[in-house]
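Dear Dr. L.,

I hope this message finds you well. Following up on our conversation about the binding site, I have prepared a predicted three-dimensional model of the protein together with adenosine monophosphate. For your records, I am including the exact sequence and ligand specification that went into the calculation, followed by the structure tokens. Please feel free to forward this to your student if that is useful.
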Amino acid sequence: MDNCIFCKLASGEIPTTKVYEDELCIASLDINPAAPGHTLIIPKAHHQDLTDNMDETLLGHLFSVAAIIGRRGKERLNADGFNVIQNNGTAAGQSVMHFHVHVIPRYENDGIFEFWKPTSPDAKELAVVAEKLS
Ligand code: AMP
Ligand code: ZN
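The resulting structure of the complex is given below.
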């Protein structure tokens, strides 16, 4: 993909703060981190999002690397935990259209963000949605 910023980061065409690399992916610090150590796991192959022909081996590998980076955040940055976030589509907050996984170190009461406001659908409403998704 000629104009894809993450293809360029992954191939080394554009410099980035790399913290990990192997044959399938790089892990690089986010330029606008939610917290120190906020890292992006970026496959070297271009896939727009999770639905774009990603094979199981690659997906499993990317999440294994996310675990490595998450563990490093706990061991080396003293994080208490970490979020693994993966956005698909602009409605879901995806701004770079090359699949990537965010790993964000978290600390007790860090107040970085709140994910969603829980709702309370009744059993019938859940059943209607479940039928569509099944
Ligand atoms: P998303 O909103 O899930 O698509 O996330 C894209 C992320 O990429 C954002 O958190 C940006 O801060 C980050 N980002 C964009 N350009 C770069 C870059 N050149 N190097 C590192 N991170 C970047
Ligand atoms: Zn790309």
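In brief: Residues 56-76 form the longest helix (21 residues).

With kind regards,
A. P.
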